[in-house]
From TrEMBL:
GO terms classed as biological process: cell wall organization; polysaccharide catabolic process
EC number: 3.2.1.39
Family that this chain belongs to: Belongs to the glycosyl hydrolase 81 family.
Annotated SUPFAM superfamilies: Fibronectin type III (SSF49265)
GO MF annotations, alphabetized: carbohydrate binding; endo-1,3(4)-beta-glucanase activity; glucan endo-1,3-beta-D-glucosidase activity
InterPro entries according to UniProt: CBM56, Endo-beta-glucanase, FN3_dom, FN3_sf, GH81_C, Ig-like_fold
Recorded catalytic activity of this chain's protein: Hydrolysis of (1->3)-beta-D-glucosidic linkages in (1->3)-beta-D-glucans
Boundaries of every CBM56 domain copy: 848-936
Organism: Paenibacillus methanolicus
First and last residue of the signal peptide: 1-22
UniProtKB keywords: Carbohydrate metabolism, Cell wall biogenesis/degradation, Glycosidase, Hydrolase, Polysaccharide degradation, Signal
First-tier enzyme category under EC: hydrolase
Full protein name: glucan endo-1,3-beta-D-glucosidase
Fibronectin type-III domain residues: 757-844
Amino acid sequence: MKKISVYLLLVTLIATLLPAQAGAFSGEVPLGSGSYSTVLPPGATNTQGTIYKTGNVSGPMPTNDWWSNLAWDTYSVAQYPHPLAVKNQSDGFRIFYPGSRITANSSCVCGWINDIHDFTVGHTAVATFPDAKVDGYSDWFVKANYQSGSNAMNVSYGHGSPYVYFNFAGGNPKLSFYTAPTVWSGSASTPVLGITMEGAHYGLFGANGSTWSGIGTKTLTNNGSSYFSVAVLPDNTQATLNKFAQYAYSHVTGTQVSYAFNAAASQVTTTYTYTTQAKQGSQTGTIFALYPHQWKNSSKALLPYTYNSVRGTMKAAEGTSFQTTMKFTGVLPTLPDKGSYNKTTLQQYVNEAEAETYTGTADTYWVGKRLGKLATLAPIADQVGDTVAATKFRNEIKSILQNWFKASDAAGNLKSQSVFYYNSNWGTVIGYPASYGSSEELNDHHFHYGYFIKAAAEVARVDKSWAQSWGPMVNLLIRDIANTNRGDSMFPFLRNFDPYAGHSWASGHARFGDGNNNESSSEGMNAWAGMVLWGQATGDAAVRDAGIALYTTEMNAINEYWFDVANTNRPASFTRSTASMVWGGKTVGDGTWWTGNPEEVHGINWLPFTSASLYLTHYPAYTNKNYNALVSENGGTNFDAWEDLIYMYRAISNPTEAKNFWNARGAALGAEAGNSKANAYHWIYNLDAMGNADPTITANTPLYAVFNKNGVKTYIAYNMTNSPITVTFSDGTVVNIPANSFNTGNGGGGGGGDTQAPSVPTNLASTKTSASVTLTWNASTDNVGVAGYDVYRGGALIGSSASTSYTDNGLAAGTAYSYTVRAKDAAGNVSAASAAHSVTTNAGSGQYVTADFTATVTKPTSSSEKITFKPTTAALYVDIHYTVNGAIQQNVRMINNNGTWEHTISGLSAGQTIELWFTYEKSGPQYDSPHYTYTH
């Protein structure tokens, strides 16, 4: 009987310890401790199976691009490779230059194709093609192939290119116009024509020896050309036509972007390279038009040509490449504990969040927002010294992520919920339940998965072993939205980010007459910030630097196209202070996908507010303008949605008013779903104390910010490594940062400042209970004055004290802990660590009580202990994990006895130490209890 019991125990132990194997169900692919499925989950809706592509295109298919509709539909809707607008049609390739035809009103800058288009390039031998397919693509160019038997027309076009390139088989170019164009250069016998159509000027470039027929009519045919190109011209002069003719036969065959992050200068350099093929002659390179976010950040010599676009003025240059250089202004894992807030009030807000139980929607977006909320709450709980709440927040993150990161259930079957599925046809990962078209249309992956990545980064900041186990699944999501490995056979390059436009796109299929769109630019930034923090926490410099490049580039694009902070890119008749949505063919400022409510129209490009949102503070004059516009559109400050976000935004331009709003309304308002009162209060009062982020000062570490309040600067940096580092700011300020913690400095605006650290705290001593340790130490000295002390447990910062004592609560009974203390001054200089002080809490009583459960240990015999676990909320399962005298960890599913879960440990000897903890289900999520130590 005893042998059978041991056998059953071993079977249970093995089942508990071992992860589900790759063969648990056909199609499960293990990654670290997690897995994904290559089989569609039961009841799930997949994306369409048809991809309109030729045999020249293989591997994962790009989606969420400006040209994506070409791959999704028989032809395409309108596409906007500015300065041109184009459309793939059954009769050929339609071309339009919005230019002077762009219109604007109070809430729209509109430049879409209308019925009076310029012309369509077709094929002399084919009236109607059966379809247009993707025949190739590069980073911002695409090729469309029209095929009817042996007759073919291949078209190459791209962002920023005034040219469109054609290759013909079985016929010649035939151009059909709405009205007969004016020919102002060339003749029937010359291969090149300069024409004007409805006020737009073009160069038409046939092959050497080709001729034209139909001049003076609505149809022009270029006879004798197997290759052909069109260029939209800035004017109708012969000199300009000659200049564009220089590159007209140098067809662009490839485009490639590369990013380089200079950590010492905190600078992102982006290189855009063109590959060309001379169809006649030997010319290389091309003429290209740069967007405002590019030419404002480039030293490239410019040509005297400009184009009007819905993004503002585009400026032309020539050659085979150009570069942009932009400052990376830093990302922090959380704001520091520098606020003017009341710590008791902040603790109350943490308590409110701790008492919440998530009952919201279970899809990737809304679960993501829950993860985002928890990720901001955990470090705030750390700062108020509430380790129990901080642990609970992080444990919920772990539980949610581990549930989603495992494709099989406990029985080894494919789950139908909380699962990621890989679609090999398109090369994408889809999370189920999906939402907002993230499965059928492949929409919004960067919005949804960005929350997952950023929450995982918060856990990785304090738990490297968890990151190592579950990190491969996090990296899978990163590869889906922002893969930078061109050799990756599973995912396309930069799915959600458009390297030439400088920002992300939301729609997977771009099946709109206005082109693709992106609404919540701030949620894109949240994704890239998550990559920065995840890469830094896990030591993956490639992921970190990719995140830095995307974050920096999109920040510049947001300031140009969503906010237009310099007021240089939009017509005066567009009177909105912000763009709520940016489309390929227009910019709108009066609505979102679901509402025209002013609070949400403005706030959709702010949320989620996190420490990575400091880019919003770089232009306080603009934020004041934007806030005042919101008040005007709303008819006053009686806000009926997203009050917390509005007050956080107001803190950028008027923190006093934001505090007044909060004091009047904070107790009554309900926080936006992805936010919390604790985070709002923490943000408002940190900005009140430190001012806004100053983008003119950089640092040689990626996790930094410099705040400026009336000329007084506060230097913030965070060290995610296990060793101290020294950070140098670009104004000369130098700060030393302890391992796994913040350091703050105040250089007074001129660099340098007080750089002398306090003396090391000495003579650590302690008193203890079974659940707490109270530390005391001798005061340090400083040349200016000691501002306080930081307390570390096991090398991790757990709290701060303004006095020479600190109490660490919520500890496990009978457990050894090691503490050190560092002194800090007002300038942010931090002393070296004190000598370590070790202390073991008193043995527990055998009963462990929390708000979520009561656990007891009783001794039924001299050689056994009975453990019971009574959850406050009924649990579907409870597992006990324990070690005896530090031996091999045991993991056993407890037995449910009318709601009280039980397990007996036998074979014990007097004096043996049992360390135990529990994993339990609570309304779906899984939680881990604290560790407890008991002496038998």
